[in-house]
Hints:
Strand content: 35-45%
Number of strands: 12
Number of domains: 2
Largest sheet: 12 strands, antiparallel
Structural class: alpha+beta
Number of helices: 4
Amino acid sequence: MIKKTIFLMVLALALPFGAFAGSSVDFTNGGGTLAGTNSGLTLTGSTLIAVNGLGGGLITGNVLGTVSFSTGVLSSGTLQMGGTFAAGGTFSVTGNGTSGIPNGTIFSGAFTGPVTWTLITLANGTHNYTLTGSLSGRWYSGGTVNGATVQLTINTGKGFFNGQTTISSGDTNFSTVPEPGSLGLMGTGLIGIAAVFRRKLRMSRARSDPYRFRCNSLSPMPRTASAADGAFSTEELCHQQFKSARF
Protein backbone atom coordinates (compact mmCIF):
# COMPACT_ATOMS: atom_id res chain seq x y z
CA MET A 1 0.00 0.00 0.00
CA ILE A 2 2.84 2.41 0.87
CA LYS A 3 4.60 1.67 -2.41
CA LYS A 4 1.37 2.32 -4.26
CA THR A 5 0.92 5.66 -2.49
CA ILE A 6 4.51 6.67 -3.31
CA PHE A 7 3.88 5.79 -6.95
CA LEU A 8 0.78 8.01 -6.98
CA MET A 9 2.79 10.88 -5.51
CA VAL A 10 5.48 10.54 -8.18
CA LEU A 11 2.83 10.38 -10.87
CA ALA A 12 1.12 13.52 -9.52
CA LEU A 13 4.45 15.37 -9.41
CA ALA A 14 5.01 14.47 -13.05
CA LEU A 15 1.68 15.92 -14.19
CA PRO A 16 2.74 19.60 -14.20
CA PHE A 17 5.79 18.83 -16.32
CA GLY A 18 3.64 16.88 -18.74
CA ALA A 19 1.26 19.83 -18.95
CA PHE A 20 4.08 22.23 -19.83
CA ALA A 21 5.47 19.92 -22.52
CA GLY A 22 4.09 20.81 -25.97
CA SER A 23 2.19 23.69 -24.38
CA SER A 24 1.05 25.53 -27.50
CA VAL A 25 -1.22 24.76 -30.44
CA ASP A 26 -1.00 26.58 -33.76
CA PHE A 27 -3.78 26.96 -36.35
CA THR A 28 -3.33 28.21 -39.93
CA ASN A 29 -6.28 29.41 -41.98
CA GLY A 30 -6.71 30.70 -45.50
CA GLY A 31 -9.39 32.34 -47.60
CA GLY A 32 -12.65 33.72 -46.35
CA THR A 33 -14.27 37.12 -46.58
CA LEU A 34 -13.27 39.93 -44.24
CA ALA A 35 -15.97 42.58 -44.24
CA GLY A 36 -16.85 45.46 -41.98
CA THR A 37 -17.67 49.02 -41.12
CA ASN A 38 -16.90 51.28 -38.22
CA SER A 39 -19.06 48.91 -36.17
CA GLY A 40 -16.44 46.17 -36.52
CA LEU A 41 -14.83 43.61 -38.83
CA THR A 42 -16.16 40.10 -39.43
CA LEU A 43 -14.41 37.08 -40.97
CA THR A 44 -16.55 34.32 -42.49
CA GLY A 45 -15.81 31.31 -44.68
CA SER A 46 -12.12 30.98 -43.78
CA THR A 47 -10.82 27.39 -43.94
CA LEU A 48 -8.54 25.72 -41.41
CA ILE A 49 -5.66 24.25 -43.45
CA ALA A 50 -3.03 23.30 -40.85
CA VAL A 51 -2.89 22.38 -37.16
CA ASN A 52 0.30 21.85 -35.18
CA GLY A 53 0.61 20.61 -31.59
CA LEU A 54 -2.92 19.32 -31.07
CA GLY A 55 -2.15 15.87 -29.65
CA GLY A 56 0.59 15.24 -32.17
CA GLY A 57 2.65 16.78 -34.95
CA LEU A 58 1.74 18.88 -37.93
CA ILE A 59 -1.58 18.06 -39.62
CA THR A 60 -2.34 19.63 -43.00
CA GLY A 61 -5.30 19.43 -45.36
CA ASN A 62 -7.50 21.42 -47.68
CA VAL A 63 -10.36 21.55 -45.20
CA LEU A 64 -9.69 20.71 -41.53
CA GLY A 65 -12.26 23.08 -40.09
CA THR A 66 -13.02 26.79 -39.96
CA VAL A 67 -11.84 30.03 -38.36
CA SER A 68 -14.24 32.92 -37.85
CA PHE A 69 -14.33 36.10 -35.78
CA SER A 70 -15.89 39.50 -35.22
CA THR A 71 -14.27 42.50 -33.56
CA GLY A 72 -15.57 45.32 -31.42
CA VAL A 73 -16.24 48.78 -32.83
CA LEU A 74 -13.58 50.97 -34.44
CA SER A 75 -12.21 53.05 -31.58
CA SER A 76 -9.52 55.01 -33.43
CA GLY A 77 -8.20 55.55 -36.97
CA THR A 78 -10.02 54.64 -40.16
CA LEU A 79 -10.81 51.51 -42.12
CA GLN A 80 -8.74 52.75 -45.07
CA MET A 81 -5.61 54.01 -43.28
CA GLY A 82 -5.55 51.62 -40.33
CA GLY A 83 -6.81 51.89 -36.79
CA THR A 84 -7.82 50.09 -33.62
CA PHE A 85 -10.96 48.11 -32.81
CA ALA A 86 -12.24 47.63 -29.29
CA ALA A 87 -11.87 44.39 -27.35
CA GLY A 88 -14.74 41.94 -27.29
CA GLY A 89 -16.45 40.42 -30.27
CA THR A 90 -16.05 36.69 -30.89
CA PHE A 91 -13.42 34.26 -32.12
CA SER A 92 -14.04 30.62 -33.00
CA VAL A 93 -11.99 27.68 -34.28
CA THR A 94 -13.79 24.49 -35.29
CA GLY A 95 -12.56 21.10 -36.49
CA ASN A 96 -14.19 18.46 -38.68
CA GLY A 97 -12.64 15.33 -37.16
CA THR A 98 -9.95 14.88 -39.83
CA SER A 99 -6.77 13.05 -38.73
CA GLY A 100 -7.72 13.14 -35.05
CA ILE A 101 -8.69 16.82 -34.95
CA PRO A 102 -11.72 17.27 -32.67
CA ASN A 103 -15.04 17.36 -34.45
CA GLY A 104 -16.79 20.53 -33.35
CA THR A 105 -15.71 23.68 -31.52
CA ILE A 106 -12.02 23.64 -30.53
CA PHE A 107 -11.88 27.20 -29.20
CA SER A 108 -14.60 29.72 -28.45
CA GLY A 109 -13.72 33.10 -27.03
CA ALA A 110 -13.18 36.78 -27.73
CA PHE A 111 -10.54 39.46 -28.20
CA THR A 112 -9.14 40.49 -24.83
CA GLY A 113 -7.48 43.72 -25.87
CA PRO A 114 -7.55 46.29 -28.65
CA VAL A 115 -7.43 44.75 -32.14
CA THR A 116 -4.89 46.42 -34.41
CA TRP A 117 -5.79 47.03 -38.06
CA THR A 118 -2.61 48.00 -39.93
CA LEU A 119 -2.13 49.33 -43.45
CA ILE A 120 1.01 48.06 -45.19
CA THR A 121 2.18 49.97 -48.25
CA LEU A 122 4.57 48.04 -50.47
CA ALA A 123 7.37 49.52 -52.58
CA ASN A 124 5.21 49.36 -55.70
CA GLY A 125 2.48 51.42 -54.06
CA THR A 126 0.04 48.55 -53.49
CA HIS A 127 -1.46 47.67 -50.13
CA ASN A 128 -2.09 44.84 -47.73
CA TYR A 129 -3.70 44.95 -44.29
CA THR A 130 -2.96 42.95 -41.18
CA LEU A 131 -5.25 42.35 -38.22
CA THR A 132 -3.68 41.34 -34.90
CA GLY A 133 -5.19 40.76 -31.47
CA SER A 134 -4.96 38.80 -28.23
CA LEU A 135 -7.53 36.13 -27.37
CA SER A 136 -8.98 34.31 -24.39
CA GLY A 137 -11.70 31.71 -24.18
CA ARG A 138 -12.84 28.16 -23.64
CA TRP A 139 -10.75 25.20 -24.85
CA TYR A 140 -12.46 22.10 -26.22
CA SER A 141 -11.13 19.89 -23.41
CA GLY A 142 -12.14 22.33 -20.68
CA GLY A 143 -10.49 25.30 -19.03
CA THR A 144 -9.51 28.72 -20.26
CA VAL A 145 -6.65 29.34 -22.68
CA ASN A 146 -5.02 32.49 -24.02
CA GLY A 147 -3.64 33.18 -27.44
CA ALA A 148 -3.12 35.61 -30.28
CA THR A 149 -4.00 35.85 -33.95
CA VAL A 150 -2.49 37.53 -37.01
CA GLN A 151 -4.56 37.76 -40.21
CA LEU A 152 -3.11 39.02 -43.52
CA THR A 153 -5.36 40.22 -46.34
CA ILE A 154 -4.71 39.77 -50.04
CA ASN A 155 -3.15 42.67 -51.87
CA THR A 156 -5.77 45.34 -52.52
CA GLY A 157 -3.79 46.95 -55.32
CA LYS A 158 -3.25 50.68 -55.17
CA GLY A 159 -6.71 51.11 -53.74
CA PHE A 160 -7.67 50.88 -50.08
CA PHE A 161 -10.03 48.73 -48.04
CA ASN A 162 -13.52 49.43 -49.32
CA GLY A 163 -15.54 47.40 -46.83
CA GLN A 164 -14.67 43.91 -48.03
CA THR A 165 -11.56 41.90 -48.91
CA THR A 166 -10.20 38.35 -48.77
CA ILE A 167 -7.86 36.82 -46.20
CA SER A 168 -4.65 35.54 -47.76
CA SER A 169 -3.51 33.63 -44.68
CA GLY A 170 -3.87 33.71 -40.94
CA ASP A 171 -2.09 32.22 -37.95
CA THR A 172 -3.57 31.72 -34.48
CA ASN A 173 -1.59 30.35 -31.54
CA PHE A 174 -2.89 29.26 -28.14
CA SER A 175 -0.92 28.53 -24.99
CA THR A 176 -2.41 25.48 -23.31
CA VAL A 177 -0.33 25.79 -20.11
CA PRO A 178 -2.62 25.61 -17.01
CA GLU A 179 -3.51 28.96 -15.52
CA PRO A 180 -2.33 29.87 -11.98
CA GLY A 181 -5.71 28.81 -10.56
CA SER A 182 -5.34 25.36 -12.11
CA LEU A 183 -1.78 25.05 -10.83
CA GLY A 184 -3.02 26.03 -7.38
CA LEU A 185 -5.60 23.27 -7.44
CA MET A 186 -2.92 20.85 -8.58
CA GLY A 187 -0.71 21.94 -5.66
CA THR A 188 -3.60 21.39 -3.27
CA GLY A 189 -3.99 17.91 -4.67
CA LEU A 190 -0.31 17.16 -4.07
CA ILE A 191 -0.61 18.34 -0.45
CA GLY A 192 -3.58 16.01 -0.01
CA ILE A 193 -1.63 13.07 -1.42
CA ALA A 194 1.27 13.88 0.92
CA ALA A 195 -1.13 13.86 3.87
CA VAL A 196 -2.49 10.48 2.80
CA PHE A 197 1.06 9.15 2.53
CA ARG A 198 1.93 10.33 6.05
CA ARG A 199 -1.24 8.78 7.45
CA LYS A 200 -0.57 5.46 5.70
CA LEU A 201 3.00 5.49 6.99
CA ARG A 202 1.86 6.08 10.59
CA MET A 203 -0.72 3.29 10.32
CA SER A 204 1.95 0.94 9.00
CA ARG A 205 4.23 1.76 11.92
CA ALA A 206 1.34 1.32 14.34
CA ARG A 207 0.64 -2.18 13.03
CA SER A 208 4.31 -3.17 13.31
CA ASP A 209 4.81 -1.71 16.82
CA PRO A 210 1.47 -0.49 18.22
CA TYR A 211 2.56 0.26 21.79
CA ARG A 212 5.49 2.39 20.61
CA PHE A 213 3.30 4.30 18.15
CA ARG A 214 0.66 4.97 20.79
CA CYS A 215 3.05 5.95 23.56
CA ASN A 216 5.20 8.20 21.40
CA SER A 217 2.18 10.42 20.88
CA LEU A 218 2.11 11.28 24.60
CA SER A 219 3.71 14.43 25.90
CA PRO A 220 7.09 13.58 27.47
CA MET A 221 7.47 13.86 31.24
CA PRO A 222 10.93 14.21 32.82
CA ARG A 223 12.06 11.44 35.16
CA THR A 224 12.09 12.11 38.85
CA ALA A 225 14.51 9.29 39.58
CA SER A 226 16.84 7.01 37.71
CA ALA A 227 15.59 3.94 35.87
CA ALA A 228 17.54 1.85 38.38
CA ASP A 229 15.28 3.17 41.14
CA GLY A 230 12.24 1.86 39.31
CA ALA A 231 10.92 5.25 38.23
CA PHE A 232 9.79 5.64 34.64
CA SER A 233 8.95 8.53 32.39
CA THR A 234 5.39 8.80 31.04
CA GLU A 235 6.46 7.19 27.76
CA GLU A 236 8.31 4.31 29.44
CA LEU A 237 5.41 3.63 31.82
CA CYS A 238 3.06 3.55 28.87
CA HIS A 239 5.30 1.05 27.10
CA GLN A 240 5.30 -1.20 30.16
CA GLN A 241 1.52 -1.07 30.56
CA PHE A 242 0.84 -1.56 26.87
CA LYS A 243 3.14 -4.56 26.70
CA SER A 244 1.42 -6.14 29.71
CA ALA A 245 -2.02 -5.61 28.20
CA ARG A 246 -0.90 -7.00 24.83
CA PHE A 247 1.10 -10.00 26.01
